[in-house]
Each structure stands twice: as structure tokens, then as C-alpha cells.
């Protein structure tokens, strides 16, 4: 694979994986304006974020078997076409309920990019290069929070929030063209993969029974749900509590995205000296400490605007380390069921994100405590699952060794 081709493949895969993050981040500055125009509250508009995350969660489970059965490109075209249609539906909606429904279908279409991009990494790159490739894709994804809220803020302020969804439809149309002309096919269609419910469930069961997949998917997925707490609560915290403008909020969001971009580059360097298992373990530990400090600081009113941004910046640097390493470790054991494994991993991540964002909305109390509290809970939970899971696996391995020795003696 030439250097130029390598660059284009990473860019396209990163763009595919960015469809959903971009769709989430770009309309956040418009929450107050959307609520005003639709005659509702910000809490209700936040539910359109939750419905989007639920759509991603369900959609990824469906796309996994489809990508294994029909190859990578046909499901991609179908899903992205649905996304474009639903985006126009979002732009034309006249009620918050209709927006919530359209966002669900938008997610059902766009989430194919998340599953397909991860499956294509396994198709196109050797196992020892995948963590590095995932880091580069995460770098492309991390650019979206720098661009999307800033663009969304200016579009909302200068034109109308409906144009955000029209722009998203245009971007995805360009991605469809790039897939057609530049993206390799990847794994071909496999007629031996059955789409009957029982066969699909058996395939998922095979994936779940793999201990490494289960541990790193659960731990990494919960840890990577932390930004969804930030995403769900940040517009209210910064714009209503700290009284920043739509444009200023976009720049704050962009600045905090630098934390994730920098850590993806750091991960690229760290992988030359350390294993992914070591990196993710240390990262979850330090994020847990920072998360507890965030809770204490908000509860005791230690933070002003700039100090809160600074602490959140420190916390979010961990996301560029947990995400790619968790993905690589989760998918490493598979070849045949890569699509199903990618779907389950992505579905859990977005499902956890949906739950976390909904909890932030439910706990809304005009402080930053629900946001930072759920961020900390995600890291602490991921750390506990990682240690507990590895301890169980080691215990089982020792038990098997003892049983083997006993059987030999008998």
C-alpha cells in the first residue's frame, strides 16, 4: 500500500467514523435557539441527542451482520442514503417530537460509518498496525469537535439552525462519492453468513464468549461514554450558567477537543514503547482521579469558567488513549466475526452514551455537577470493570492449570 493510498484510506475511514460525532457536535450551540423556535425547553431538545444515541446503539447491531453478509460497501451506501434523507427531515421539522424522531432515523443511517470503518481496519491492515490506525482515525474524529460546534454556532447565529442539517447532508453526500471512487472494497460478501435471527444471535454469542472482547468492550465502552456526559451538559453549563455566547461556546468546545487530538498523537508515540493493555489501565486510573477532583471542585464552588475548562481539558486528554486502545484490544481476537464484533462494541459504547446523556438531562439542577459527576462515574466504572475482568480471567486460567495437572496425575 503506497503512502498516498494509505493517507486517503485513513481519511475516508476517519470521515466515516466522524459522521455521527459531527452530527452530535454541530447542533449543540443551537440548543437554546431550537428550543425557542420549537416552543419547548432545552431539556426536551436534549432528548433529541438521546434519541440519536439510541438510534446508533440499535443501528450498529443491525449493520454488523449485514456488513459480514453483503460486504462493506452496499450497507454503507444504504445507510448513508438514509442519513441524508433524515437530515432533510430534521431541517424541515416543526416540533421537538418530530425532531427527536428524525434524529433517531438520522442515527440509524449514519451509524453504519462507525461499524464499517472499524471492520475495514481489520480488513485492510495487519493486526500489529491496527492500534496505530485506530489512533489516526481517532485523530480525524477528534478534529470534528474543533470544527463542528464552531461552525454550528456561526450558522445558528447568522443564518438558522435548520441549515446545520442541510450542511450535514451535503458533507455525507461527498463522503458517499469518496467511498465509491477511492475506498477499497475490503472483505467481500460472504453468503455463508446467515441473516436468520437464530444465526445472527449465535454469531453475537460467539463474540461475547471471548473474554478479551468482553472485558475491553465493557471497560472501554463505559470509559468512552464520558464525553457524552460532557456533550449533553456542556451547552447548558457554559451558555446558561457561565453566560457565554453561541460563538464562544463553539470556541470552548474546539479548545477542549485539542485535548483529545493531542492524546491521540501521544498514543501513537506511546505504542512504540508500551502495550495497549498498559496504556488503557494507567489512563483510566488518572482520569478517575481527575474526575473525583472535578466533583469536589464543582460541589465546593472552587471553579470559575477558566479553571473548570482547564480541569476538563486534563480529563479529556484520556479519551484519545482509551478509545483506540480499547477498540484494538476488543477486535484483536476476531477475523470471521469482525463486523458483528464491531457492531456490538459500537452499540455498547453508544448505548452507554445514550444512558449517560439521559441521566445528565434527568439530573439537571442548574449546576455542572450532573455533567462532571457522570464523567467521573464513567472512568471509575471502566477502571473497576477492567481490573475485575482481568482478575476473573487470571483466576480461571490458574484454575484450569490446576485441573490439568490433577487430570495428568490421575
TrEMBL record:
Q: What is this protein called?
A: MFS transporter, DHA1 family, bicyclomycin/chloramphenicol resistance protein
List residues of the Major facilitator superfamily (MFS) profile domain: 9-410
The cellular component terms of Gene Ontology attached to this UniProt record, alphabetical and capped at eight, are: plasma membrane
In Gene Ontology terms, what is one molecular function of this protein? xenobiotic transmembrane transporter activity
Q: Does the keyword Cell membrane apply?
A: yes
CDD domains, alphabetically?
MFS_MdfA_MDR_like
User: Where is the chain membrane-spanning?
Assistant: 45-64, 76-94, 100-121, 133-155, 161-183, 213-231, 251-270, 282-299, 305-322, 343-363, 369-389
What does the sequence similarity comment in the record state about its family?
Belongs to the major facilitator superfamily. Bcr/CmlA family.
PANTHER family per record:
MAJOR FACILITATOR SUPERFAMILY, POLYAMINE TRANSPORTER 2-RELATED
Q: In which broad location class does this protein mainly occur, judging by the first location in its UniProt entry?
A: membrane
Amino acid at each position: 500500500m503506497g503512502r498516498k493510498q494509505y493517507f486517503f484510506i485513513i481519511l475516508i475511514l476517519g470521515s466515516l467514523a466522524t459522521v455521527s460525532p459531527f452530527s452530535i457536535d454541530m447542533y449543540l450551540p443551537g440548543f437554546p435557539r431550537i428550543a425557542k423556535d420549537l416552543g419547548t425547553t432545552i431539556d426536551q431538545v436534549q432528548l433529541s441527542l438521546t434519541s440519536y444515541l439510541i438510534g446508533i446503539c440499535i443501528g450498529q447491531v443491525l449493520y454488523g451482520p449485514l456488513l459480514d453478509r453483503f460486504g462493506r460497501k452496499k450497507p454503507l451506501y444504504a445507510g448513508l442514503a438514509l442519513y441524508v434523507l433524515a437530515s432533510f427531515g430534521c431541517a424541515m421539522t416543526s416540533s421537538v417530537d418530530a425532531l427527536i424522531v428524525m434524529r433517531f432515523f438520522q442515527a440509524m443511517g449514519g451509524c453504519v460509518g462507525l461499524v464499517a470503518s472499524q471492520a475495514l481496519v481489520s480488513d485492510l491492515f495487519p493486526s500489529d498496525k491496527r492500534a496505530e490506525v485506530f489512533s489516526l482515525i481517532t485523530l480525524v474524529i477528534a478534529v470534528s469537535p474543533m470544527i463542528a460546534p464552531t461552525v454550528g454556532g456561526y450558522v445558528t447565529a447568522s443564518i438558522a439552525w435548520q441549515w446545520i442539517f442541510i450542511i450535514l447532508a451535503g458533507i455525507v453526500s461527498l463522503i458517499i462519492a469518496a467511498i465509491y471512487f477511492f475506498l477499497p472494497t475490503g472483505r467481500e460478501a460472504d453468503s455463508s453468513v446467515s441473516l436468520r435471527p437464530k444465526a445472527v444471535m449465535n454469531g453475537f454469542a460467539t463474540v461475547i464468549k471471548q473474554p478479551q472482547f468482553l472485558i475491553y468492550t465493557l471497560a472501554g465502552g463505559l470509559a468512552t461514554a464520558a464525553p457524552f456526559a460532557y456533550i449533553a451538559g456542556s451547552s447548558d453549563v457554559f451558555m446558561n450558567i457561565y453566560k457565554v455566547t453561541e460563538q464562544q461556546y463553539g470556541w470552548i468546545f474546539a479548545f477542549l477537543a485539542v485535548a483529545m487530538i493531542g492524546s491521540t498523537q501521544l498514543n501513537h508515540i506511546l505504542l512504540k514503547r508500551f502495550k495497549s493493555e498498559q496504556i488503557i489501565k494507567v489512563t483510566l486510573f488518572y482520569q478517575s482521579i481527575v474526575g473525583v477532583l472535578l466533583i469536589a471542585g464543582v460541589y465546593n464552588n472552587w471553579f470559575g469558567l477558566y479553571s473548570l475548562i482547564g480541569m476538563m481539558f486534563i480529563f479529556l486528554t484520556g479519551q484519545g488513549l482509551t478509545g483506540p486502545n480499547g477498540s484494538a484490544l476488543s477486535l484483536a481476537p476476531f477475523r470471521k466475526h469482525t463486523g458483528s464484533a464491531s457492531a456490538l462494541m459500537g452499540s455498547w459504547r453508544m448505548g452507554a452514551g445514550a444512558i449517560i446523556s439521559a441521566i445528565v438531562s434527568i439530573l439537571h439542577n442548574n449546576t455542572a455537577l450532573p455533567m462532571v459527576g457522570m464523567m467521573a462515574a464513567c472512568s471509575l466504572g471502566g477502571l473497576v470493570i477492567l481490573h475485575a475482568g482481568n482478575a476473573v480471567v487470571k483466576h480461571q486460567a490458574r484454575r484450569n492449570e490446576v485441573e490439568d495437572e490433577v487430570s495428568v496425575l490421575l
